[in-house]
Design a protein that fits this description.
Elements: H1 3-22, H2 30-37, H3 41-47, H4 51-67, H5 76-89, H6 91-95, H7 104-124, H8 137-160, H9 166-176
Helix pairs in contact: 1-2, 1-4, 4-5, 4-7, 5-9, 7-8
Length: 183
């Protein structure tokens, strides 16, 4: 991506995030993003299909930054904390995208990020995987999907209740997780 395209992408993402801080995502328009970013609709559509997609891309980028460098974390809770700190920092955006569940693109971002983190965790710690899942990629994929979807559901509940206590949220999510993940 050339420098000009990168700068435009950064401006568009920033505009989407700024608007979504104060407006439910379903009410954020392409026109308002374009005005805030100082670009034309044509330029917008070269970068995104719609406002929700652009917001999802912006949040995915932030999730990647928040969890970057964590693959060698000592505890699975380190990654959980980094993700929840991101969600907490952008809580108004996420809450504005809930009706009653997160909009699909935002939910998919969280799910995809958690799945990738859990897969990496079991690659780094194969000794934790119960025999029922070991040497069976399909079974392990089911366990990872179950854990990721449950974590996304827990994040939605945390957002819904307006709880700002990240430490408590990390403890609750980990307490609800099967023990083998935590070994």
């Amino acid at each position: 991506m050339d420098a000009r395209t990168r700068r435009t992408s950064v401006r568009l993402r920033a505009a989407a995030l700024e608007l979504a801080e104060h407006t439910p995502i379903d009410d954020v328009t392409v026109a308002s993003i374009c005005a805030r970013a100082g670009v034309t609709r044509d330029t917008f559509y070269r970068h995104a299909a719609n406002a929700v997609g652009l917001l999802a891309d912006a949040l995915a980028s932030e999730i990647a930054e928040a969890t970057e460098g964590l693959p060698h974390a000592e505890l699975i809770g380190d990654a959980e904390r980094a993700l929840l700190e991101h969600v907490h920092r952008r809580a108004r955006v996420y809450r504005g995208a809930m009706h009653p569940l997160l909009s699909a693109p935002l939910r998919d971002n969280l799910d995809r990020s958690i799945r990738a983190g859990l897969l990496l965790w079991v690659e780094l710690h194969p000794e934790i995987v119960p025999r029922v899942f070991s040497h069976d990629d399909a079974a392990l994929a089911i366990a990872i999907a179950y854990a990721a979807s449950g974590t996304v559901g827990a994040i939605e509940e945390w957002l819904r209740h307006g709880d700002d206590d990240i430490d408590r949220a990390v403890k609750l999510v980990l307490a609800a997780s099967p023990e083998w993940w935590l070994r």
